[in-house]
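Components:
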Amino acid sequence: MTPKFSKNFTIYWISTAITLGILIHIFSILTMPYFAPANAWSRFNSALTANHMTVLPEPAKGYPGILPYQASDVRYAVCRYNIKEGPVLITAEIPDDLWSVALYTETGENFDLIKGADLKLNLLRLKLFKKKNNPGVDDHIRRDNQKGVLKDERSLDVTQDTGIIVIRAPLASKAFSSEAHAYLSNATCNQLRAEDSIDNS
Amino acid sequence: MQYDKILDFIKSFAPSRHSSFPGLLLGAFLFILLAFFTGFGSAWYMIEKGTPLTRHKFGVWHNWHTQGTVNSDPYTKAYIARSGRLPLNAKYAQYFKATTDDDGNRLTSSCSYIMQGQPIASDWWSIGLYDSNSNVVFNKAERYAFNSKNIARLENGGYIIQVSPFARPDNWLPSEKAGKLTVLIRVYGIQASDDTNSGNVISASLPSIKRIGCS
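Structure:
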C-alpha cells in the first residue's frame, strides 16, 4: 500500500462503504423471504399441484422429505392454494385435538391456525377467498362463521392470492400412522367453480 | 460559514487528482469489499447466529421465539425463509434446536450422548435427531424421534434418551454414521403461564445433553 493510496482511501470512503453495506444489509434481510431459493414456497411450488391436497410421504431412505427438519412422528397433508380464479374450499376430518390446520403466506408466516380442539364436530369446511374479488360478501362470512359454531364451517378473507395450507397430525406412535394417513388422504382442497357461489358451496 | 467548513473537511478526504491508477483500482476494490463484507456478512451473521432479541438461548438450546408469526421481526422472517421450514405460530408452538453438548462440543455420530429432561408443560412434545442436511438420521430400527406419548418414562415422570451409533436399551436414537448431528424439540400447545411465549416457562424442563464417550 503506497503512502499516496493510504491518503486517498480515507475515512470518507470507509464511511461511504459502510453506509452502502448497511443498505445492502437492510435490502438483503427484507428481500430474503421473497427470494430465498430454498424457502418452503419454492419447494412446494415445484413439487405440488395448485389447489390439490397432497399427503406428504413420511421420511424414508431415499426420500428425506420436502421440508427440512420434517418430523418423523407427524404426518402432513399440504395444499398450495391459489384463489386468483375463485375461492378455494378445504375440507378435512380432524379426529384429534392435537391435529391442526395452519395457513401460511408465501413467505412462511402462519397467519391462521385452526386446532382440532377448536372444532365441535371434527369436520372442517374452510372457504378461502379475497373480499375485494367478492364484493358484498361480508354477510356470507358472518353467516358462515355463525354456522361455524355448530358445523365447523368457516370463511376466511385472505389478503394474498396464494399461500400454503398444512394439516398436521402428530402421532402417539407409529401404529397410528396408517390411520392418520387415511384421514389425511380424504382431506380436499378444491377451487370452487363459477357456478358454486360463496353461498351455495 | 459552518457549512463551508464541514464541506472543506469532507473534501479533504476525497481522492486527490494526483492519485495513481493502481491506487484508485485498489481503493475501489477495498471499497466494494468493505461494503459487501459489512452488508452480506452482517446479514449472514444475524440470520445464522441471531441476537438475544431474536433468538433465545437456554443452555444448549436455541429458540427463535417469534418464528411463524405474522408480526415476527425481519431477521426471524429471513431466517425462516432461508431455512425452508414452515413453523407453526409461536403462540401455539415453539422449536428448540441444539447442535452442541453441555460442554460446548459439536454433536457428532462418533460420540454417544445421554439426554435427560423433564416433561414439558404442553399438549405434545417431540425430540428428534437430524443430520447436517436437516434430514432424519435413517436407521434400521426406524427410530427417529420420541414424543410425549411414546417415550419411556422414569418414576419421577422424567426421561432419558440415549443418542448413540450402538444399540442401547429403552429410549435409543441411533446416530449411525450421520456425522454432525442436530437435536430438535418441537412443542405444540404450550401451557405457558405468561403471554410472552418466550419459552421461559418451559426452559427448565429442556433436557441436558451429556457426552458419555466417543469411538
